[in-house]
Amino acid sequence: MSDQPDPPTSSAESTVPGRIVAVLGRGVVPATEPILRADDLGALRGDGIFETVHIRGGRPWMLREHLDRMSRSAARLELALPSPDALTDLVTTALAEWPPAVEGALRLVCTRGPETGGDVTVYATVTAIASTVLGSRRNGITVATASLGFAADARQRAPWLLGGAKTVSYAVNMASQRWAMAQGADDVLWVSADGYALEGPTSTLVWLTGSTLCTVPAEATGILAGTTARWLFDHATDVGFDIDERLTTPGALADADGVWFTSSVRGVVEIRAIDGVKMRNATDTERLRSLLGYGA
Ligand code: PLP
Fold this sequence. Notes:
Layout: E1 20-23, E2 27-29, H1 41-45, E3 48-56, E4 59-60, H2 63-77, H3 84-95, E5 104-111, E6 121-128, H4 131-139, E7 141-147, H5 171-182, E8 187-191, E9 199-200, E10 203-209, E11 212-215, H6 218-221, H7 227-235, E12 242-245, H8 250-253, E13 259-263, E14 267-274, E15 277-278, H9 285-292
Parallel strand pairs: 7-8, 7-14, 11-12
Antiparallel strand pairs: 1-2, 1-6, 3-4, 3-5, 5-6, 9-10, 10-11, 10-13, 13-14, 14-15
The chain binds pyridoxal-5'-phosphate.
Pyridoxal-5'-phosphate is lined by residues 52, 199, 201-204, 224, 226-229, 262-264.
Protein backbone atom coordinates (compact mmCIF):
# COMPACT_ATOMS: atom_id res chain seq x y z
CA MET A 1 0.00 0.00 0.00
CA SER A 2 1.56 3.26 -1.12
CA ASP A 3 2.53 5.85 1.47
CA GLN A 4 3.48 8.23 -1.35
CA PRO A 5 1.87 11.65 -1.05
CA ASP A 6 -0.91 12.63 -3.43
CA PRO A 7 0.08 15.14 -6.11
CA PRO A 8 -0.81 18.68 -5.05
CA THR A 9 -4.08 19.97 -6.47
CA SER A 10 -3.91 23.24 -8.32
CA SER A 11 -7.44 24.64 -8.00
CA ALA A 12 -8.02 27.75 -5.91
CA GLU A 13 -9.97 25.66 -3.38
CA SER A 14 -7.11 23.18 -3.04
CA THR A 15 -6.53 21.92 0.50
CA VAL A 16 -3.49 19.82 -0.46
CA PRO A 17 -0.39 22.00 -0.36
CA GLY A 18 2.60 21.23 -2.58
CA ARG A 19 5.83 19.65 -1.39
CA ILE A 20 8.12 21.83 0.69
CA VAL A 21 11.88 21.25 0.38
CA ALA A 22 14.47 22.74 2.73
CA VAL A 23 18.22 22.13 2.46
CA LEU A 24 20.62 22.42 5.39
CA GLY A 25 22.60 25.64 5.07
CA ARG A 26 20.35 27.00 2.30
CA GLY A 27 16.82 27.07 3.68
CA VAL A 28 13.65 26.48 1.66
CA VAL A 29 14.24 26.01 -2.07
CA PRO A 30 11.73 25.59 -4.91
CA ALA A 31 10.40 22.02 -4.76
CA THR A 32 11.46 21.38 -8.37
CA GLU A 33 15.04 22.61 -7.89
CA PRO A 34 17.69 19.85 -8.10
CA ILE A 35 19.52 19.54 -4.77
CA LEU A 36 21.66 16.39 -5.22
CA ARG A 37 24.90 16.10 -7.18
CA ALA A 38 25.01 13.31 -9.76
CA ASP A 39 27.65 11.49 -7.67
CA ASP A 40 25.78 11.73 -4.37
CA LEU A 41 26.25 8.38 -2.61
CA GLY A 42 22.65 8.46 -1.44
CA ALA A 43 21.58 8.17 -5.07
CA LEU A 44 24.46 5.97 -6.27
CA ARG A 45 24.56 3.46 -3.40
CA GLY A 46 21.49 4.08 -1.25
CA ASP A 47 24.10 5.14 1.29
CA GLY A 48 22.27 7.38 3.69
CA ILE A 49 19.62 7.50 6.39
CA PHE A 50 16.26 9.14 6.89
CA GLU A 51 13.36 9.64 9.26
CA THR A 52 9.69 10.24 8.54
CA VAL A 53 8.01 12.40 11.16
CA HIS A 54 4.27 12.95 11.58
CA ILE A 55 3.25 16.63 11.33
CA ARG A 56 0.15 17.61 13.29
CA GLY A 57 -1.00 21.13 14.04
CA GLY A 58 1.96 22.28 11.97
CA ARG A 59 4.42 20.75 14.45
CA PRO A 60 6.58 17.61 14.40
CA TRP A 61 5.34 14.75 16.60
CA MET A 62 8.02 12.97 18.63
CA LEU A 63 10.87 14.81 16.90
CA ARG A 64 13.33 14.04 19.71
CA GLU A 65 12.64 10.29 19.40
CA HIS A 66 13.15 10.47 15.62
CA LEU A 67 16.40 12.43 16.01
CA ASP A 68 17.61 9.88 18.58
CA ARG A 69 16.90 7.02 16.17
CA MET A 70 18.55 8.95 13.34
CA SER A 71 21.73 9.33 15.38
CA ARG A 72 21.67 5.56 16.12
CA SER A 73 21.29 4.92 12.36
CA ALA A 74 24.18 7.34 11.67
CA ALA A 75 26.39 5.50 14.16
CA ARG A 76 25.68 2.17 12.44
CA LEU A 77 26.61 3.64 9.04
CA GLU A 78 29.51 5.72 10.44
CA LEU A 79 27.88 8.80 8.97
CA ALA A 80 28.67 12.37 10.12
CA LEU A 81 25.10 13.41 10.95
CA PRO A 82 24.81 17.13 11.86
CA SER A 83 23.86 17.99 15.45
CA PRO A 84 20.28 17.58 16.73
CA ASP A 85 20.08 21.39 17.04
CA ALA A 86 21.02 21.88 13.37
CA LEU A 87 18.47 19.24 12.32
CA THR A 88 15.78 20.78 14.52
CA ASP A 89 16.43 24.18 12.90
CA LEU A 90 16.07 22.58 9.47
CA VAL A 91 12.75 21.02 10.51
CA THR A 92 11.52 24.38 11.83
CA THR A 93 12.54 26.08 8.56
CA ALA A 94 10.75 23.44 6.48
CA LEU A 95 7.56 23.76 8.54
CA ALA A 96 7.42 27.57 8.64
CA GLU A 97 5.01 27.79 5.72
CA TRP A 98 3.16 24.51 6.28
CA PRO A 99 -0.57 25.04 6.95
CA PRO A 100 -1.23 23.76 10.51
CA ALA A 101 -4.65 22.39 9.52
CA VAL A 102 -3.07 19.88 7.09
CA GLU A 103 -1.74 16.62 8.48
CA GLY A 104 1.70 16.08 6.98
CA ALA A 105 4.76 13.85 6.75
CA LEU A 106 8.23 15.33 7.07
CA ARG A 107 11.15 13.37 5.69
CA LEU A 108 14.57 14.21 7.07
CA VAL A 109 17.34 12.80 4.87
CA CYS A 110 21.10 12.58 5.35
CA THR A 111 23.23 10.92 2.66
CA ARG A 112 27.00 10.37 2.65
CA GLY A 113 27.34 13.13 0.06
CA PRO A 114 29.56 13.25 -3.06
CA GLU A 115 31.55 10.16 -4.03
CA THR A 116 34.68 12.30 -4.35
CA GLY A 117 34.38 13.34 -0.70
CA GLY A 118 32.89 16.31 1.07
CA ASP A 119 30.02 17.01 3.42
CA VAL A 120 26.95 14.90 3.95
CA THR A 121 23.86 16.02 2.03
CA VAL A 122 21.01 16.95 4.37
CA TYR A 123 17.53 18.07 3.49
CA ALA A 124 13.90 17.88 4.61
CA THR A 125 10.69 17.57 2.65
CA VAL A 126 7.11 18.05 3.83
CA THR A 127 4.08 16.59 2.05
CA ALA A 128 0.44 15.98 2.89
CA ILE A 129 -0.50 12.47 4.07
CA ALA A 130 -1.64 10.39 1.08
CA SER A 131 -5.36 9.72 0.74
CA THR A 132 -4.63 5.95 0.54
CA VAL A 133 -3.13 6.16 4.03
CA LEU A 134 -6.16 8.02 5.37
CA GLY A 135 -8.37 5.35 3.78
CA SER A 136 -6.39 2.51 5.39
CA ARG A 137 -6.92 4.05 8.84
CA ARG A 138 -10.66 3.80 8.25
CA ASN A 139 -10.85 0.49 6.38
CA GLY A 140 -7.87 -1.52 7.59
CA ILE A 141 -5.61 -3.48 5.25
CA THR A 142 -4.87 -6.99 4.08
CA VAL A 143 -1.30 -8.30 3.99
CA ALA A 144 0.62 -11.08 2.29
CA THR A 145 3.57 -12.71 4.03
CA ALA A 146 6.98 -12.65 2.33
CA SER A 147 10.25 -14.14 3.52
CA LEU A 148 13.22 -11.86 4.13
CA GLY A 149 15.41 -14.93 3.63
CA PHE A 150 17.29 -14.97 6.92
CA ALA A 151 16.59 -16.26 10.42
CA ALA A 152 15.03 -13.96 13.03
CA ASP A 153 18.31 -13.69 14.95
CA ALA A 154 20.62 -13.40 11.90
CA ARG A 155 21.02 -9.63 11.98
CA GLN A 156 22.26 -9.75 15.59
CA ARG A 157 25.41 -11.49 14.31
CA ALA A 158 25.70 -9.53 11.05
CA PRO A 159 26.16 -5.80 11.69
CA TRP A 160 26.71 -5.23 7.94
CA LEU A 161 23.04 -6.02 7.38
CA LEU A 162 22.39 -2.76 9.25
CA GLY A 163 19.56 -4.13 11.37
CA GLY A 164 17.75 -1.38 13.23
CA ALA A 165 19.10 1.38 10.97
CA LYS A 166 16.66 3.40 8.86
CA THR A 167 18.66 3.65 5.65
CA VAL A 168 17.51 5.16 2.36
CA SER A 169 18.05 1.72 0.71
CA TYR A 170 14.31 1.00 0.56
CA ALA A 171 14.25 -0.61 -2.91
CA VAL A 172 13.63 -4.03 -1.30
CA ASN A 173 10.90 -2.54 0.90
CA MET A 174 9.13 -1.01 -2.10
CA ALA A 175 9.59 -4.17 -4.21
CA SER A 176 8.00 -6.19 -1.38
CA GLN A 177 4.98 -3.90 -1.40
CA ARG A 178 4.64 -4.06 -5.19
CA TRP A 179 4.83 -7.85 -5.00
CA ALA A 180 2.11 -7.92 -2.34
CA MET A 181 -0.14 -5.67 -4.41
CA ALA A 182 0.33 -7.99 -7.38
CA GLN A 183 -0.99 -10.76 -5.09
CA GLY A 184 -4.06 -8.63 -4.35
CA ALA A 185 -2.97 -7.59 -0.84
CA ASP A 186 -2.44 -4.05 0.43
CA ASP A 187 0.93 -4.60 2.11
CA VAL A 188 3.52 -7.15 3.23
CA LEU A 189 4.27 -8.81 6.52
CA TRP A 190 7.94 -9.78 6.40
CA VAL A 191 8.68 -13.20 7.83
CA SER A 192 12.05 -14.65 8.85
CA ALA A 193 13.45 -17.79 7.22
CA ASP A 194 12.57 -19.66 10.44
CA GLY A 195 8.94 -18.56 10.19
CA TYR A 196 8.60 -15.65 12.61
CA ALA A 197 6.57 -12.53 11.82
CA LEU A 198 8.93 -9.52 11.82
CA GLU A 199 7.54 -6.20 10.56
CA GLY A 200 6.13 -4.48 7.48
CA PRO A 201 8.37 -2.67 4.96
CA THR A 202 7.23 0.66 6.46
CA SER A 203 5.47 -0.42 9.69
CA THR A 204 5.81 -2.16 13.03
CA LEU A 205 3.68 -5.23 13.85
CA VAL A 206 1.55 -4.92 17.01
CA TRP A 207 -1.02 -7.44 18.25
CA LEU A 208 -3.26 -8.06 21.24
CA THR A 209 -3.52 -11.34 23.13
CA GLY A 210 -6.17 -11.06 25.84
CA SER A 211 -5.21 -7.82 27.55
CA THR A 212 -1.54 -7.99 26.53
CA LEU A 213 -0.36 -5.70 23.77
CA CYS A 214 2.61 -7.32 22.02
CA THR A 215 5.26 -6.39 19.51
CA VAL A 216 8.41 -7.98 18.09
CA PRO A 217 11.68 -7.45 20.02
CA ALA A 218 13.77 -5.05 17.92
CA GLU A 219 17.24 -5.69 19.34
CA ALA A 220 17.03 -9.47 18.96
CA THR A 221 15.63 -9.42 15.41
CA GLY A 222 17.16 -6.32 13.80
CA ILE A 223 13.77 -4.86 12.84
CA LEU A 224 13.44 -1.09 12.99
CA ALA A 225 12.45 0.02 16.50
CA GLY A 226 9.24 1.94 15.70
CA THR A 227 8.69 5.28 17.43
CA THR A 228 4.91 4.89 17.13
CA ALA A 229 4.90 1.44 18.75
CA ARG A 230 7.25 2.78 21.46
CA TRP A 231 4.77 5.56 22.26
CA LEU A 232 1.91 3.06 22.41
CA PHE A 233 3.84 0.73 24.70
CA ASP A 234 4.95 3.61 26.94
CA HIS A 235 1.30 4.64 27.44
CA ALA A 236 -0.66 1.39 27.06
CA THR A 237 -0.55 0.45 30.74
CA ASP A 238 -2.29 3.78 31.56
CA VAL A 239 -5.40 2.51 29.77
CA GLY A 240 -5.37 -1.05 31.12
CA PHE A 241 -3.20 -3.03 28.70
CA ASP A 242 -0.31 -5.24 29.78
CA ILE A 243 2.66 -5.10 27.41
CA ASP A 244 5.18 -7.61 26.11
CA GLU A 245 7.80 -8.11 23.40
CA ARG A 246 7.84 -11.61 21.93
CA LEU A 247 8.12 -13.58 18.73
CA THR A 248 5.05 -14.88 16.94
CA THR A 249 4.15 -16.50 13.63
CA PRO A 250 1.65 -15.43 10.97
CA GLY A 251 -0.42 -18.51 11.81
CA ALA A 252 -0.62 -17.64 15.51
CA LEU A 253 -1.80 -14.11 14.68
CA ALA A 254 -5.13 -15.57 13.55
CA ASP A 255 -5.85 -16.23 17.26
CA ALA A 256 -4.91 -12.69 18.33
CA ASP A 257 -7.56 -10.26 19.57
CA GLY A 258 -6.37 -7.57 17.18
CA VAL A 259 -3.45 -7.18 14.77
CA TRP A 260 -2.15 -3.81 13.56
CA PHE A 261 0.60 -2.10 11.61
CA THR A 262 1.81 1.12 13.24
CA SER A 263 3.94 3.90 11.81
CA SER A 264 4.41 7.64 12.04
CA VAL A 265 2.47 8.23 8.82
CA ARG A 266 -0.22 5.60 9.25
CA GLY A 267 -0.74 5.79 12.98
CA VAL A 268 -2.61 2.57 13.81
CA VAL A 269 -3.99 0.48 10.94
CA GLU A 270 -5.91 -2.72 11.53
CA ILE A 271 -4.75 -5.83 9.64
CA ARG A 272 -7.94 -7.56 8.52
CA ALA A 273 -6.40 -10.62 6.83
CA ILE A 274 -3.03 -12.31 6.42
CA ASP A 275 -2.54 -14.45 3.28
CA GLY A 276 -6.32 -14.49 2.87
CA VAL A 277 -6.93 -15.74 6.44
CA LYS A 278 -9.30 -13.37 8.23
CA MET A 279 -8.08 -11.95 11.53
CA ARG A 280 -10.47 -11.59 14.46
CA ASN A 281 -12.27 -8.27 14.64
CA ALA A 282 -10.08 -5.85 16.57
CA THR A 283 -12.22 -4.03 19.11
CA ASP A 284 -9.38 -1.89 20.51
CA THR A 285 -8.35 0.06 17.41
CA GLU A 286 -9.97 3.28 18.62
CA ARG A 287 -8.47 2.87 22.11
CA LEU A 288 -4.99 2.58 20.57
CA ARG A 289 -5.64 5.40 18.15
CA SER A 290 -6.78 7.73 20.90
CA LEU A 291 -3.54 6.98 22.77
CA LEU A 292 -1.70 8.32 19.73
CA GLY A 293 -4.11 11.18 19.16
CA TYR A 294 -4.45 10.37 15.43
CA GLY A 295 -7.77 10.90 13.74
CA ALA A 296 -9.28 7.99 11.81
N1 PLP B 1 9.57 -0.58 10.29
C1 PLP B 1 10.04 -0.04 9.14
C2 PLP B 1 10.90 -0.91 8.25
C3 PLP B 1 9.76 1.29 8.80
O1 PLP B 1 10.24 1.81 7.66
C4 PLP B 1 8.95 2.06 9.67
C5 PLP B 1 8.61 3.45 9.37
O2 PLP B 1 8.96 4.02 8.40
C6 PLP B 1 8.46 1.47 10.84
C7 PLP B 1 8.79 0.15 11.12
C8 PLP B 1 7.60 2.27 11.80
O3 PLP B 1 8.40 3.23 12.47
P1 PLP B 1 7.79 4.57 13.06
O4 PLP B 1 6.67 4.18 13.97
O5 PLP B 1 8.95 5.17 13.80
O6 PLP B 1 7.33 5.40 11.92
